[in-house]
Amino acid sequence: MRRRTLFAVIAAGLTVGVMLGVTSERWAPPTAPAALSIFDGEPTDEDRWTSTNVAANSILATRRIATLGDTEVFAVRSTVDLWSGMTHPEGVLCVSARSPQLMFFSTGCVSETVFREYGLRGVLAAYGQPSGLPTWRTERLISVVWSPAGEVTVTDLTDEVVLSPEELYSDEERAAGLDIPFIDTLRFTGADPDISRFVAESVSLAELGPGEIGRSSGSGVTTTSYLSVHAGATADAERSVCLTVRFNDELLPPVCDSLATFRESGITLQLVDEGVTVFARPREGVGFDVSARGTG
Amino acid sequence: MSENPAASDELSALADGELRRIAYGRGHADAAGGVTREAAAEELARRTPPPVAPPPAAPHSSSSAGSAGSPIGPGSSIDDELADDELPPPFWTRARLVGAAVLVASIAVGAAVGVGVDRVADALAPESLTVFDRPPSEIEIAALDGADQFGLGFGSAAAGIELRHLATVDEVDVFAQLVPADYGTPRSDVGDQVCLLAMAPDASFVSPPCVPRAVFERQGIGGQLSEMDTSGTYPLADNLRSLSIVWGPRGGAEVALSVAERSAP
User: Fold this and answer.
1) What's the rounded mean pLDDT across residues A182-197?
2) Residue A152: other Cβ atoms inside 10 A
3) pTM score above 0.80
4) What ipTM describes this predicted complex?
5) Which of A14, A234, B18, B208 could lock onto B110 through a cystine, CB 3.0 to 4.6 A?
6) A118, A160, A179: residue with CB nearest B222
């Protein structure tokens, strides 16, 4: 073979090879979804996972794919996206988890077609719910990579990613109560002009608010609650928090307490004559209790 | 079967090679002193014994049997001559075999280099979040206002939210959002977050969950942007779109469109 021909053959081969190599991800057939073979056969007791958010018959199959400390991670085949609640009759794949005392949110789900090519990458975030309501403080953060070939990588990123309250709020912000969601909300809701004048006449000009933090109605009662933060008399004095309630159509005088007390137990306004208790509590939210109504 | 005795003698005197040159050579209609192509061919045919079928191999015949005694066995001189000189040359000549091997090897080496280049290119692709380094376009500013107005994704540039366009598929614009930790209440205790948002005329999409920026920088974000059925009727519309997206931590977004196949109730 002549040298010139040999070089031409080599050049042609290299060109074709490089083009094939560079575009291999595009033309290569989807890999066999080895990962999905875990759904073959009968599940064991350890594979069973149930959701409190979607109908049981939406869950087609579950398998435990990893454990991380006391957290079990499950692959879920479902007709409902466990994150969004959107229905997908053709079926989607998701990852969820469970752990004692924690409430986990599932990853977003992907279609089987997407899974065959890219697998699933997601985040599992867990919150505590000591009193039945989530605290919205991230107690655990786990990243999940589930490859089409079946490899599962779960990594606890809690310590690396989750910020402590001290990191999240400066001392000044904590002193202003901004680490309390109800008060932080006031930065966005702004002040109601009519309520502002009313509160200013009764207490003082508010530092934050008064802004609406909730409406409740039922049993012939309608309440609208407003919260405001007021600076102390001196620069060192602690701030106070006031709850102003519009009870049906009547605007009631503000009830105030120290920021420390509000942080601990919230504010409660008792309408003895009406048998109604209106409350705004950092952990439980805002609402009213009419259990004493008509019994007094 | 030459009728000329002199020519017959001459034919007999010629070597096989010379006869082949006369019989099959180019440009010599009558060469070598009156020996014609036909006569040379006939003489060659006469000298060449007819092919004989090889005897069946003995069950335990030694490998040297053919070369030792059989005139037509593999390795015999006649066989070699037939293969080398008289039968048409095989397609896979040595040169072609070498060429094919070089070609295959070149393709293999090239493919390996190509895959490597692809991997290196992926690894060296700019970090996906650099999309937020450039100023927002007018379309992106309008989209952020729209998100704020219609409660889609996260709105309000005043709150420090950034929005950038990633792709357009089937008239659906896909955007990335970078949401600061202090947006919303309570603040995000996982820091800044990377989110996805899809917007289209007369359609709304549900976004996949946001991921903390720290997680995005490790593994990117992926998920589905599912069109919501806003018809208010049942059964659900059968042409709802779903965008599958994979983005980051490096390079651009890969977005694929599918139409949901809703089963009848």
Assistant:
1) 86
2) 17
3) no
4) 0.74
5) A14
6) A118
